[in-house]
Sequence to fold (78 residues):
Amino acid sequence: MTINELAERASVAPNTIRKVEHGDPTVSLGVAFEIASLVGVPLFDESPARRRLERRLVDERLAVLPERVRPLEIDDDF
Fold:
């Protein structure tokens, strides 16, 4: 797939694809995720064990933060 074809599929300009390739921080996260998905780059590990490990590591990092800056618990169970 060429840059132009990828840009068309992602509904962005070819220059945006080049920015993603170079890690330009001005590209929105949504665009970067869309492009990654289109070219087959996995964004999240499918392994439940890996996700548990990642969650534990995040929880450990959050535990050392002062309470006033810890994220609020969000009930996202729809």
Observations:
- DSSP finds four helices and no strands in the chain.
- Residues 19 and 27 are 7 Å apart (CA to CA).
- Residues 48-63 form the longest helix (16 residues).
- Helices lie at 3-10, 14-21, 29-39, 48-63.
